[in-house]
TrEMBL record:
<feature type="transmembrane region" description="Helical">
    <location>
        <begin position="211"/>
        <end position="232"/>
    </location>
</feature>
<feature type="transmembrane region" description="Helical">
    <location>
        <begin position="38"/>
        <end position="63"/>
    </location>
</feature>
<dbReference type="GO" id="GO:0006874">
    <property type="term" value="P:intracellular calcium ion homeostasis"/>
</dbReference>
<dbReference type="InterPro" id="IPR004837">
    <property type="entry name" value="NaCa_Exmemb"/>
</dbReference>
<feature type="transmembrane region" description="Helical">
    <location>
        <begin position="75"/>
        <end position="97"/>
    </location>
</feature>
<dbReference type="GO" id="GO:0005886">
    <property type="term" value="C:plasma membrane"/>
</dbReference>
<dbReference type="GO" id="GO:0005262">
    <property type="term" value="F:calcium channel activity"/>
</dbReference>
<feature type="transmembrane region" description="Helical">
    <location>
        <begin position="103"/>
        <end position="122"/>
    </location>
</feature>
<dbReference type="InterPro" id="IPR004481">
    <property type="entry name" value="K/Na/Ca-exchanger"/>
</dbReference>
<feature type="transmembrane region" description="Helical">
    <location>
        <begin position="303"/>
        <end position="322"/>
    </location>
</feature>
<protein>
    <submittedName>
        <fullName>K+-dependent Na+/Ca+ exchanger family protein</fullName>
    </submittedName>
</protein>
<feature type="transmembrane region" description="Helical">
    <location>
        <begin position="244"/>
        <end position="266"/>
    </location>
</feature>
<dbReference type="InterPro" id="IPR044880">
    <property type="entry name" value="NCX_ion-bd_dom_sf"/>
</dbReference>
<dbReference type="Pfam" id="PF01699">
    <property type="entry name" value="Na_Ca_ex"/>
</dbReference>
<dbReference type="GO" id="GO:0008273">
    <property type="term" value="F:calcium, potassium:sodium antiporter activity"/>
</dbReference>
<feature type="transmembrane region" description="Helical">
    <location>
        <begin position="129"/>
        <end position="146"/>
    </location>
</feature>
<feature type="transmembrane region" description="Helical">
    <location>
        <begin position="181"/>
        <end position="199"/>
    </location>
</feature>
Length: 323
């Protein structure tokens, strides 16, 4: 049986890469037609889609009265995104170029979003008011993107042109993107479905090998729910789409920390029975954020050697969890 599970794992992983290809090509196609940067599309759309596993886990755990499960998953997923996903992807790619100040500013926002729930948890609970605060932060983040885009559209299309020409252009863009949007939705659905299957197969492998449930939760829940981000990151860097890589990665951290934890807290407030259980993940996230920020800020380039350091930090985090 274990051989069958291993075969299924690799078969699903292969199909998952094909789904990622379809998703990335759709994002790039929509970006070309609409004139919207791939980074923006990834931060707003792709990151939401790849964060759906965390959202499903969060809402389900909240409805079942186990909101703390979602909190642990989100903290682990954020650390996994910055250290494991970014580290592995960059090692494979050989390095990532950081284009412009926008990505750096986006990372500062992502780090703030990741730390905000930890600050709100200082009183031992993440209540409904805290959840509303997180949701307002996410709403402000989303509206800021749309505001910038509307300004760009206005400057490009309305300056010196009639309004009806702007409407006509919008209609043409809609027609051209219909097919790409369809492919994008199919690709995202496949990513989520296949990722869920891989997590289930991995859990069965762990059970067959009698691996403790704690290890399964620590390694498979956070890593498993970030599997879509990991596959998209690998594929985006392979096709030299650095904007998609950073947009998806940083957008996922922001969505995890604000939208998902906000919804979970509103549905069922989170109480931390043992604060020290969340101290280590919180401290590791802060350290990981500072290190990552220094790496991309100094040379506007994330090198393979720096990526190895990120992976070592992730390994240290896993080891410390068992001490």
């Amino acid at each position: 049986m274990i051989i069958l599970y291993v075969f299924l794992f690799f078969a699903l992983a292969f199909i998952l890469t094909k789904a990622a290809d379809l998703t990335l090509e759709s994002i790039k196609s929509i970006s070309r037609v609409t004139g919207t940067k791939a980074f923006v599309l990834s931060a707003l759309i792709l990151s939401v889609a790849t964060s759906l596993p965390e959202l499903f886990v969060g809402i389900t755990s909240a409805l079942e009265g186990s909101s703390s499960l979602s909190l642990g998953n989100i903290l682990g997923a954020n650390i996994t995104n910055i250290l494991l996903v970014a580290g592995l992807s960059t090692v494979v790619a050989g390095g990532v170029v950081v284009h412009g100040e926008k990505i750096f500013h986006e990372f500062i926002l992502a780090a703030f979003a990741g730390v905000l729930p930890l600050i709100l948890l200082l009183d031992g609970t993440l209540g409904r008011v805290d959840g509303l605060i997180l949701l307002v932060v996410y709403l402000a983040y989303t509206l800021s993107f749309f505001k910038k885009r509307f300004v760009e559209i206005g400057e490009h299309h309305l300056s010196g042109r009639m309004f009806f020409k702007f409407i006509k252009n919008a209609e043409e863009v809609e027609k051209k993107t219909d097919k790409s949007v369809g492919h994008l939705l199919v690709g995202i659905a496949a990513l989520l479905f296949l990722s869920d299957l891989i997590v289930r197969v991995s859990t069965n492998i762990a059970s067959s090998l009698s691996i403790p449930v704690f290890i399964v939760g620590l390694l498979l829940l956070s890593v498993g729910t970030t599997l879509p981000e990991m596959i998209v990151s690998f594929k985006s860097l392979k096709s030299h789409s650095d904007g998609i890589f950073f947009g998806n990665l940083l957008g996922s951290v922001i969505i995890n920390s604000t939208l998902i934890l906000g919804l979970v807290s509103v549905i069922n407030p989170i109480s931390v029975d043992v604060p020290r259980d969340y101290f280590l993940p919180g401290a590791v996230f802060v350290i990981a954020s500072v290190v990552f920020c220094l790496f991309i800020r100094t040379k506007h380039f994330l090198s393979r050697h720096e990526a190895v350091i990120l992976l070592l930090l992730y390994l240290i985090f896993i080891i410390l969890e068992f001490l």
